[in-house]
Design the sequence.
């Protein structure tokens, strides 16, 4: 499979896991029971007897450490190492929200000839149908997200039964209605802004990634900038930048790509344009010493034929 086919497979699998995990009791928090359910088993700290005088403080400390602190520290440590090395790869390869971002991007591009409502369309769309198609898709995705999130807190079987019979309780109805409205607004107007500045998890990943100047990053082959300039001249736009779901300057320094999700769509777009070029595309994943070069201004590269500024 190609890199994008692998990424698409990972995204679909994780989105399915996100939706069906509560239904299969793989992971959820039951508000009625007051504890987590993991792989069909109740997961509690089991200190109720201690709180009521049935045990000592040492026993309580051991249970809290082994059942809460130790798993939490292990998760943070493993996640931190992966983020340190690969950046926001979770966003680009797994995140259910980013999956919706890309779906709406593609649909909006096909129907409205632009990726966001804030960009100028390449040509005007005719009639109301294209706008209605995008709106219905956004509302549908928002509804799925709302029900999916609520299923992590309520019994998913009862929730889906009540939903099918139009017999939800007041609290569930309010949650789904409000969440659907909020997610609809997000998916139509602010999905890129949320991913860049509103997602705490995304910002956390970006900060750790930026601290490692040897982390995996997209590198532009400055020495072959002439081929890039010819590509832009022929295509009348920048295919690599156009392919980026986050609307980032893909050929720029690392600091300008702070919110890069490692989706490599810019690399795939460049490879497609340069498919007949024996030297291949001008963008690639690098790490280590090569990654350090990505955050150096073009003026510090000596002996290059063309400055990066010529192809911006």
Sequence:
């Amino acid at each position: 499979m190609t890199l994008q086919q692998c990424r698409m497979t990972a995204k679909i699998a994780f989105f399915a896991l996100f939706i069906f995990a509560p239904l299969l009791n793989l992971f959820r928090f039951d508000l009625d029971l007051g504890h987590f359910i993991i792989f069909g088993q109740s997961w509690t700290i089991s200190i109720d007897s201690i709180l009521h005088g049935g045990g000592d403080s040492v026993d309580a400390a051991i249970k809290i450490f082994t059942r809460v602190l130790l798993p939490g520290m292990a998760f943070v440590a493993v996640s931190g190492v992966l983020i340190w090395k690969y950046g926001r790869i979770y966003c680009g390869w797994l995140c259910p929200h980013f999956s919706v971002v890309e779906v709406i991007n593609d649909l909006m591009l096909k129907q409205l000839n632009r990726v966001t409502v804030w960009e100028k369309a390449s040509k005007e769309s005719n009639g109301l149908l294209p706008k209605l198609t995008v709106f219905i898709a956004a509302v549908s995705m928002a509804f799925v997200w709302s029900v999916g999130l609520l299923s992590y807190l309520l019994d998913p079987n009862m929730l889906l039964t009540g939903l099918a019979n139009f017999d939800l309780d007041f609290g569930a109805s309010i949650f789904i209605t409000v969440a659907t409205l909020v997610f609809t607004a997000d998916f139509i107007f602010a999905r890129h802004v949320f991913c860049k500045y509103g997602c705490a998890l995304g910002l956390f990943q970006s900060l750790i990634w930026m601290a490692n100047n040897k982390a995996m990053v997209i590198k532009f082959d400055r020495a072959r900038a002439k081929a890039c300039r010819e590509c832009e001249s022929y295509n009348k736009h920048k295919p690599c930048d156009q392919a980026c779901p986050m609307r980032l300057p893909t050929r720029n320094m690392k600091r300008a790509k702070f919110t890069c999700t490692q989706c490599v769509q810019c690399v795939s777009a460049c490879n497609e344009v340069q498919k007949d070029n024996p030297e291949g595309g001008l963008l690639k994943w690098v790490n280590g010493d090569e990654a350090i070069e990505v955050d150096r201004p073009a003026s510090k590269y000596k002996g290059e034929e063309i400055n990066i500024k010529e192809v911006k």
Summary: The chain has a mean pLDDT of 87.
